Amino acid sequence: MKNKLTIIPVVTLGCLCLSGIALGQNPSKFKPLSHGTAASSPAAKADANAKNPGASAAALSSKDKAFIMAAAKGGMMEVEWGKMASQKSQNADVKKFGSRMVADHTKWNNDLMALASSKGVKVPASKMSGSWKSDKDYMDMMVKDHQKDLAEFQKEAKEGGDADLKKLADKTAKGIEKHLAMAKETQGKVK
User: Fold this and answer.
1) Which of 6, 72, 96, 98 sits CB 3.0–4.6 Å from 86 for a disulfide?
2) Is there a contact between 80 and 13 (Cβ–Cβ < 8 Å)?
3) 34-55 in b/e burial notation, b at 16+ Cβ within 10 A?
């Protein structure tokens, strides 16, 4: 009886050692369960993406990457032109609108840049320059630009391939919708 009790732990230990060797030779076959564990949480995924940004960049479709680049460029333009409008406009409503563009688009740009970074997409930080002839020209441009942007953000929110980007696009589209209404209202006040 004593020999049988000694053999059980030795056999168990041997099996564990052999399974470790087997896993070491073909680790891709072993996938640990992650149902409800911290490893499957969004924070863990973001941390994993930060450690291996190339993996998540490859997961984004070329359309999602193109959307990020276009949205970043457009957002930077809104901020720069909003600064110019808030400083140089002759109309108090246009100045107020420009200031609102700076505040909101700066926040949205920061959110977009953080998401892009977490997905391994590097967005160039270029500043836009431009000018317009009058407050009316600026407001006409803002109405057209926000109509175009609203359609693009709504399309990404509906058809995008990345859940995080779709959520951000939907949230931003709601703000752009408000901007469009403000732009139209302000456009009606300038000559």
Assistant:
1) 98
2) no
3) eeeeeeeeeeeebeebeeebee
